[in-house]
Specification:
By secondary structure, this protein is mainly beta. The chain folds into two domains: 211 residues, Sandwich (Jelly Rolls), CATH 2.60.120.10; 93 residues, Jelly Rolls (Sandwich). Helix content is 12%, strand content 42%. It is built from six helices and 21 strands. Strands 1, 4, 14, 15, 16, 17, 18, 19, 20 and 21 form a ten-stranded antiparallel beta sheet that branches. Strands 2-3-5-12-7-10 form a six-stranded antiparallel beta sheet. Strands 9-8-11 form a three-stranded antiparallel beta sheet. It starts with a strand and ends in an 8-residue tail after the last strand. The site of zinc ion (ZN) has 4 residues, from loops. Zinc ion binds next to loops.
Amino acid sequence: MSEPLFLKGVLQEKIWGGDKLKKEFGYPSPSNKTGELWAISAHKNGPATVSNGIYEGHTLDELWKEHRELFGNQEGEVFPLLTKIIDATDDLSVQVHPDDAYGLEHEGELGKTECWYIIDAEEEAEIIFGHHAQTKEEFTRMIDEGQWTDLLRYVKVKAGDFFYVPSGTIHAIGSGIMILETQQSSDTTYRVYDYDRTDDEGNTRPLHIQQSIDVTTIPHTDPVPAQTIRNVGDSTLTTLVTNAFFTVQKWMIKERTPFTAEGAYTLVSVLEGSGQLMIDGSSYNLNKGMHFIIPSGISRWEIEGDLMIIASVPGKEADQLD
Ligand code: ZN
């Protein structure tokens, strides 16, 4: 019998981190500087571990290597997706990620397209999303001259907002923001600007100006993902974005709701509420902060309760056998 794979993620300490992963979600954070939970991750820098069933104790990267049938026998060296929760109490550095071609050529790792669901935001909190330069020359000159406030594009955010951040998009999460991030499983980041901050020893963090100029999309265009909404009784299922790498959905569950798999496997993160997952007559408790994968052997399931969930399935790029 196929079972869902409930996952225990990996907490990452960051200088800009806070205590909300502990306070809001109850994760066993050892400090008040926890920046990220790598919730559904097979990345070597923090793979999640299965906490139930016959695969209990196995990491997700082990399952990807040894039990590819759980993932529809998809090809690929690395599990393609990474789901994180991020708690920023300080501004993150301004950064940009390469696409797959540039990442593989220069870093030996895939590029990164990502998207953000804003879980929580303080009043007036803002992100950096894109820039105002019209040409590469202008972009380069404004960086050289340190014209950061004119160059960077600031956007106010609130809980429930969603941002699609394709590779090549300049971006930064600002202080007072908590997000769920769905992204390609990659750790390649080019830092453009770090607010001239120094650590206790007076050192700045490295910047990657030339790479950033190489990979940034100029001029910036706001991606407008086509969103679709489906109502099932009082439940609302919204597709937030669909692209070559992933499809991300928001499930507002208010009553017993049937699902059919829309990809080889499904990544699920419970952000609010509680309820039940029903598969083949078995039932599993769902609570805020849980993350799990519905593997390839399960094509139908039901969820009931009062829940807000962000779910994702791998895109066509990661689905070469289909
Ligand atoms: Zn990023």
